[in-house]
Design goal:
Length: about 325
Amino acid sequence: MRKFAGPAGSLSRIAVESTALKTNMLGDPATRYVDVYVSAEHDGRGLPLLVDLAGFTGSGLAHTNWVGFRENLPERLDRLIGERLMPPVVVAFPDCFTRLGGNQYVNSASVGAWEDYLLSEMLPAIEQRFGCGGDGRRGVFGKSSGGYGAIMHALRHSDIWAAAACHSGDMGFELCYLPDMPAVLRALAGVDNSIERWWQQLESAQKHPEGSFKVFNALAMAASYDPDPTQFLGIRLPVTFDTCEIIEERWANWLRHDPVVALGSQSDNLRRLKALYIDCGEKDQFNLLYGARRFAQRLKQLDIAHRYEEFADNHTGVDYRMDISLPFLAEALTR
């Protein structure tokens, strides 16, 4: 709900026809919509560009919708900019929802070539149409899976992104993913360990059964980090069905996508950023705090400039943290 009585920015929706996403195994559409916010009294030209990556089960299109009792993101931006807490910007809200429930924003033979889409198709479409962004003036941010996407894009593509903010992002995979594997196996045991049968039952159900989130979240992560095109929707688990023991070759594929691990070989890319922001709640129920601490400690050891904060909350309903991160990114991108 709107808390700022001043001028409101404009919001428009564009369609991006993607070639990169046409090969996904999920049957998801290759034409994707992007909502674009432009600050009040601007047409976008010359402004920095921020890209919002939504969390798992979310979409950029949901972030621009009306929401009760609190601001949506365009309303938050109106207030921050209107009160001169941050400079004017353009913000893109891409719809990256998938059949599996969401996105980790990496290239996957199963889920789709989402890195390629975002960098080679979506960004040029936004920048050409609105005259915004460009070298040194692009930032990426998100929370949860979106925070994960932001930090991985910063690690891999600092030649494109100049600033990044990771709110409660997935990292420390052995702590945030492996603890759910026994529950996943128990659910699959009820359908003779068939991922295909379990997924078909989920899709045909009138509502998702209680406790199903852990299962489809784990399956989606498997399709993102270790896809096997010979399997149903490219999904295979990194543990054995009978004893829940790690399958080392598969788990190694997951770990290559863990920001804490990736930092070991890609840390120099972060030195190119104008701004790097990371935070996490002290009561995060997905154990993400410990991965965030590991990542921040390593950044400090490597003498990489960053801003790291912990706050007295959990993983849910923490968009208010963007009151800190968005001005931090926007101010850096105007320099």
